[in-house]
Design a protein that fits this description.
Elements lengths: L8 E7 L7 H14 L3 E7 L1 H4 L6 H17 L7 E5 L5 H10 L4 H5 L2 H8 L6 H15 L5 E4 L4 H18 L7 E4 L33 H9 L17 H14 L3 H7 L5 H28 L2 H28 L7
Parallel strand pairs: 1-2, 2-3, 4-5
Helix pairs in contact: 3-12, 4-7, 4-13, 7-8, 9-12, 10-12
The structure holds adenosine monophosphate and tryptophan (TRP).
């Protein structure tokens, strides 16, 4: 039973529309969101302003943004339950981001690993990368969420967000709820199929190690069947010594919602070939379902309607919060 509004804890997360959606994204981010939607009041937005920190070809950005939303819905996210919107549709984010950017120190921003990693590569870095956390702080604090589900790499940003919220509250008076990061453990790290000690990522150059949700079904099955394993031939979960088969076991377990131990038992004494064939079938069926729904969603104006409704709902909260902030900090001078 879905609990009703007042009693539900609020959850918020943003996803960048960069690159094509992978099986790692699906298992590590999309599926968990779908499972949270009955339990939490959810706000999910496409962080298209954040994606601008790295150059995006306009046509790719448009396509990736539409694909991402359509895939979330196709995977089961229900726009009637979840507020889905584009970050750029709610102008208040950027404005609050400016105020919060004035409250964070250069030192704090310099300590963020995302920035440090980019800097270490000695490339020219846009100022957006450096200021990235201030906009993210605004995204979060605007909606007073209890929880912010993120990948491990984003936890540091949510921790900075807590510090800034506390700073604001103590400087001006209680304004923002202090959010908790929620790091996905199960399926939080799906590995590359060709190099199972490396995380499956969008930027897989050859493309054989990464499954894309919109991959041709036969191609995706082939990728599973040619996944790198080991020569010991025993289907057993041991990420350290048997990273390939452990990764496949993890994927299988999540897709069929059965424990790894249970699968180990079922495949005891059986070969990798049989195991991979079965997993390829399971994955193929799942992708086919998602893709069918994706094509339906993409064909009409449904997506635009969802985004319009989502933006309207988000704007009501954002306007109120920004007005409150601007009154507190002395920006608002009109009496009414
Ligand atoms: P990214 O594709 O890096 O922008 O990540 C978007 C979301 O998908 C984040 O929540 C990540 O934690 C999740 N994600 C990305 N790659 C993987 C992966 N290989 N395994 C599990 N989750 C992933
Ligand atoms: N920085 C996040 C990422 O790279 C995306 C993001 C932007 C986000 N704003 C957010 C996530 C607010 C959670 C909450 O994945």
């Amino acid at each position: 039973m879905r609990k009703e509004g007042l009693y539900m804890k609020r959850m918020l997360s943003g996803i960048k529309p960069t690159g094509r959606v992978t099986l790692g994204n699906y298992i590590g981010a999309i599926k968990p969101f779908v499972s949270y939607q009955d339990e939490y009041e959810m706000y999910i937005f496409i962080a298209n302003l954040h994606s601008m920190t790295i150059y995006q070809k306009p046509a790719d950005l448009r396509q990736n943004t539409r694909d991402l939303i359509a895939l979330y819905i196709a995977a089961g996210l229900d726009p009637e339950k979840v507020t889905l919107f584009l970050q750029s549709d709610v102008l208040e984010h950027a404005q609050l981001g400016w105020y919060l950017g004035c409250m964070v120190s250069m030192g704090e921003l310099s300590r963020m690993t995302q920035y440090k990693d980019k800097k270490a590569k000695n490339e020219v870095i846009g100022a957006g990368i450096f200021n990235y956390p201030s906009l993210m702080n605004a995204d979060i604090l605007m909606y007073d969420p209890d929880y912010v589900p993120v990948g491990e790499d984003q936890k540091q940003h949510v921790e900075l967000c807590r510090d800034i919220a506390e700073r604001f509250n103590s400087r001006y008076s209680e304004t923002f709820k202090i959010p908790e990061p929620l790091v996905t453990k199960v399926g939080g790290r799906i590995m590359d199929l060709q190099n199972p000690t490396k995380k499956m990522s969008k930027s897989d150059e050859i493309g054989k190690g990464t499954i894309y949700i919109l991959d041709d079904i036969q191609v995706s099955k082939k990728k599973i069947k040619s996944a790198v394993t080991d020569s010991d031939g025993h289907i057993h979960y041991d990420p350290e010594n048997k990273p390939g088969i452990s990764n496949l076991l993890e994927i299988y377990s999540i897709l069929v919602n059965r424990s790894i131990a249970d699968l180990e038992k079922q495949y005891d004494g059986k070969g990798y070939g049989e195991f991979k064939n079965d997993l390829a079938e399971v994955l193929g069926e799942e992708l086919e379902k998602i893709q069918t729904r994706y094509h339906e969603i993409m064909s009409g104006s449904y997506l635009d309607d969802v985004l319009e409704k989502g933006a309207q709902k988000a704007r009501i909260i954002a306007r109120k919060k920004l007005a409150k902030v601007e009154r507190k900090i002395g920006i608002t001078i009109r009496k009414r």
